[in-house]
Amino acid sequence: MTTLFDAPEDIPDELESPARPEIITSLGGGHGLFQTLRAAKFCSPTKINAVVTVADDGGSSGRIRRELGQIPPGDLRMALAALTADAEAGELWENLLQHRFGGHGALAGHALGNLMIVALTDILGTSQHALDQIAELAGAQGRIIPVCSEPLDLEAEVSGLDEDARVMRQVRGQVAVAATPGQVRRVRIIPDNPEPNAAAIEAILDADLVTLGPGSWFSSVIPHILVPEVVEALATTKATKTVVLNLTAEPGETAGFSAERHIHVLRQHARDLKIDQIIVDTKTLSSPTERDHVERAARTIGAEVSFHDVQAEDGRGRFTSVHDPAKLSTALLESFAVARRR
């Protein structure tokens, strides 16, 4: 089997084929999806698909949405950068895609990769064609797929913005939702029944392993399960479906959330969603009581919890709030093997 590149040496021998997914489809956006795609490369599949949220409305992406009406390219660009080859040319392409212009002029704040996606979309007619072309030019080891071909808006019900904590306010826009000082209770997408990208549905149905998370829970993870046809594809696919929980709650949209609460929120937004495995970091959830709560919550969506060391370390041996791609790849392969034995 032709693989993308060698797997980490610490992956146990018993996890070699056939307990290794050939097609991995990862759903998400932003930095969380970036780390998951890096981990997916370590798993040595024959194919990686990144299904990316299109609700961003801030920074360069927001300006492009407003001025050109295209889907926001920022998360798509980051996914492309994550899948560039692990060689000198791949590193150059990653730096090129991620390069952000400074200064105070019209280009200030724009990432070059965003502008490349926009330009090729104009030339080739669709964002999917543009992304496929850039992926080929950059030698990307996978396919970048917008979940929808039109931009989506995010709207949240938020409490705690008034003296009376019971009062709910509507907060609209991904940036506003992510930065709200209130407590996000629920989110929805506008339009509420968008037409999905056919390539995204195909990627889910064809996969051996589908991952969801980590990432900004309300603005990068949950929007995927608010697209009805995506939920239907997740229910239909024979893939192992794995949720990767965040290492910590994020300031703003999930401030104060426990690991258990993250799972309940998933179920709240997609009652029929069924998951096979949930990966939780051993260090961030060491209490037996907390683990029991998480396992009980996981059972409500049909999932089994796998505890793994997945935290990255800095150069001084201290743990960070970022997933380590090599560690996460091992966790993904082990949980995949467990799910296939169930």
From TrEMBL:
InterPro entries named in the record: CofD (IPR002882), CofD-like_dom_sf (IPR038136), Gluconeogen_factor (IPR010119)
Subcellular location as annotated: Cytoplasm
GO biological process: regulation of cell shape
Keywords: Cytoplasm
Molecular function GO labels: LPPG:FO 2-phospho-L-lactate transferase activity
GO cellular-component term (any): cytoplasm
Gene3D superfamilies given in the database record: CofD-like domains (3.40.50.10680)
Pfam family, one: CofD
Role noted for this protein: Required for morphogenesis under gluconeogenic growth conditions.
Family in the record: Belongs to the gluconeogenesis factor family.
NCBIfam families for the chain: CofD_related (TIGR01826)
Name of the protein in its database record: Putative gluconeogenesis factor
Organism of derivation: Corynebacterium suranareeae
High-level lineage: Bacteria, Bacillati, Actinomycetota, Actinomycetes, Mycobacteriales
